[in-house]
Automatic annotation (TrEMBL):
Keyword Metal-binding applies: yes
The protein, known as: Laccase
Cofactor note: Binds 4 Cu cations per monomer.
Signal peptide: 1-29
Protein's organism: Gossypium stocksii
Biological function: Lignin degradation and detoxification of lignin-derived products.
Location in the cell: Secreted, Extracellular space, Apoplast
Pfam families registered for this protein in UniProt: Cu-oxidase, Cu-oxidase_2, Cu-oxidase_3
Broadest EC class assigned to this enzyme: oxidoreductase
GO MF entries: copper ion binding; hydroquinone:oxygen oxidoreductase activity
Lineage of origin: Eukaryota, Viridiplantae, Streptophyta, Embryophyta, Tracheophyta
Gene3D superfamilies reported for this sequence: Cupredoxins - blue copper proteins
InterPro entries: Cu-oxidase-like_N (IPR011707), Cu-oxidase_2nd (IPR001117), Cu-oxidase_C (IPR011706), Cu-oxidase_fam (IPR045087), Cu_oxidase_CS (IPR033138), Cu_oxidase_Cu_BS (IPR002355), Cupredoxin (IPR008972), CuRO_1_LCC (IPR034288)
Needed co-factor(s): Cu cation
Length: 563
């Protein structure tokens, strides 16, 4: 029986089976097989029932468990009316972009009634990642956790927790999300914000009809618990805290950090954070809570999702205590929290930061307005990098690159914006048109890249979480205002910067990242706010093959979905 199916009979049974599997497996690599059936199921939240797209009828979907060194084989069969593709967020997919999953970037989607097997190795990675649909806004309900255990016999570099729990943060719309988005696009405006945030698919008791839709975890006095926190929300950066309990951050995006203790964490869409929580308070019931961070003048769903941390033996009649979350616009907390994130950089887990840079890129992030004769005001909101709004192709970019198919994309994405300006000065409201195209940037194999992402005040400044597929990168610097190439690099952290796959570019500021282009293929880079991705805030890198035998893209699998 496939593990994905086992899961539907309950997480406890699955966890026991998982422990049995761990005991019985040899220390070397194993093959973990899953069957993902994409199917529509009626689900009720907030007094509203609606059909949603799920995997195996579960919301959130099943957790993928693997070990560093394992091969993972996931057969996805699509029974839903929508085309589907699934991205394994944060897995490097070395030479194997065919398993990465973003629709029209590395594959054409899986059509109704068809299957595709994602077959990949987990190499040199351990920790919390996640998977989600990577087409339309279907990841609103099609998502789940990936838990990668260290190799057999390798301990965590922090105190061994007594138990662990996944905390997957999401968003819920009462209406059909795809219809909400279509309506917004028709008007040329942002669609309605979500109606609730969720923790493990449940909004918690602060919402109507949600008493039974509340996630709870039981703890024992004196024990330590590992929370694997994932932000699967579509458009909201979130604060998360547990009333009365400190959180010790030990990992971000499946990379160990220097541990530090905080009352709350900030987590952007696409990011993961592992924290240790000690059950060292007076036995009772304590709310875990998540709500958005937004320090720009924009509308968000500002409601608080809650779950319950309950000490063993405490009755359900005891009212839980709410945590003190930072204020929704607490920029100072956001900046100071992110500044505390540092790679562990130990002999076992070194931070191999590129010190020499072969290619320097500077990308401006902008919102814009383009003509749209059929839209409400005759215009449509759009987004761009270096003033280019990305146009999705009709066949996978990886196929076009691998088979040398002409006319699908051009490899002329500019290394810097067409004209410099005062990026973060007063709001710019004139000349907001962008150019459109499927333009990619070609990168020489094994070269080191420094990319500065600069927010701009085109319409408004805003925080943007950027995700790079196929790689981790080091966040060597960040700042508010305009990046100064003469002064700012002197302040870069080249010793123990945080290593991650998704980074927040601060509102009205910049972030500098470095990575070594040692993974050939076509790798998507985009804002992880679904709204902005849909508006064109994305591009891709074509990393060329190297000369060695294991430095080129693997051949495509036989069952790659047709275009």
């Amino acid at each position: 029986m496939a593990m994905g199916k086992i899961l539907s009979s309950g997480p406890i049974l699955f966890f026991l089976l998982y422990l049995v599997a761990l005991v019985s497996l040899p220390a070397d690599a194993a093959v973990k097989r899953y069957q993902f059936d994409v199917q529509v199921k009626n689900v009720s939240r907030l007094c509203h029932a609606k059909p949603i797209v799920t995997v195996n009828g579960m919301f959130p979907g099943p957790t993928i468990y693997a070990r560093d060194g394992d091969r993972v084989v996931i057969n996805v069969t699509n029974y839903a009316q929508y085309n589907m593709s699934i991205h394994w967020h944060g897995l490097k997919q070395f030479r194997n972009g065919w398993a990465d999953g973003p629709a029209y970037i590395t594959q054409c989607p899986i059509q109704n009634g068809h299957s595709y097997t994602y077959d990949f190795n987990v190499t040199g990675q351990r920790g919390t990642l996640w998977w989600h649909a990577h087409i339309f806004w279907l990841r609103a309900t099609v998502y789940g956790a990936i838990v990668i255990m260290p190799k057999q016999g390798t301990p965590f570099p922090f105190p061994q927790p007594y138990r662990e729990t996944n905390i997957v943060l999401g968003e819920w719309w009462n209406n059909d999300v795809e219809k909400v988005v279509k309506q917004g696009n028709k008007l040329g405006l942002p669609p309605n914000t979500s109606d609730a945030h969720t923790i493990n698919g449940k909004p918690g008791p602060l919402f109507p009809c949600s008493e039974k839709h509340t996630f709870a975890m039981e703890v024992e006095q004196g024990k330590t618990y590992l929370l694997r926190i994932i932000n699967a929300a579509l458009n909201d950066e979130l604060f998360f805290a547990v009333a009365g309990h400190n959180l010790t951050v030990v990992e971000i995006d499946a990379v160990y950090t220097k541990p530090f203790t905080t009352q709350a964490i900030l987590i952007a869409p696409g990011q993961t954070t592992n924290v240790l929580v000690q059950a060292n308070q007076a036995p009772g019931r304590y709310f875990m809570a998540a709500r958005p961070f937004m320090d720009a003048p924009l509308t968000v769903d500002n409601k608080t999702a809650t779950a319950i941390l309950q000490y063993k033996g405490i009755p359900n009649t005891v009212l839980p205590i709410l945590p003190k979350l930072p204020l929704p616009n607490d920029t100072a907390f956001a900046l100071s929290y992110n500044a505390k994130l540092r790679s562990l950089n130990s002999p076992l887990y070194p931070a191999n930061v590129p010190l020499k840079v072969d290619r320097r890129l500077f990308y401006t992030i902008g919102l814009g307005i383009n003509p749209c004769p059929t839209c409400l005001n005759g215009t449509r909101l759009t987004a761009s990098l270096n003033n280019i709004t990305f146009v999705m192709p009709h066949i996978g970019l990886l196929q076009a690159h691998y088979f040398n198919i002409k006319g699908v994309y051009t490899a002329d994405f500019p290394d810097r914006p067409p004209q410099p300006f005062n990026y973060t000065g007063a709001p710019l409201t004139a000349n907001l048109g962008t150019t459109s195209g499927t333009r990619l940037s070609k990168i020489v194999f094994n070269s080191t890249v420094e990319l500065v992402l600069q927010d701009t005040n085109l319409l408004t400044v805003e925080s943007h979480p950027f995700h790079l597929h196929g790689y981790n990168f080091f966040v060597v610097g960040t700042g508010i205002g305009n990046f100064d190439p003469a002064k700012d690099p002197a302040k870069f952290n080249l010793v123990d910067p945080p290593e991650r796959n998704t980074v927040g570019v601060p509102t009205g500021g910049w972030t500098a990242i470095r990575f070594q282009a040692d993974n050939p293929g076509v790798w998507f880079m985009h804002c992880h706010l679904e709204l902005h991705t849909g508006w064109g805030l994305k591009t891709a890198f074509v990393v060329e093959n190297g000369k060695g035998p294991d430095q080129s893209i693997l051949p495509p699998p036989k069952d790659l979905p047709p275009c």
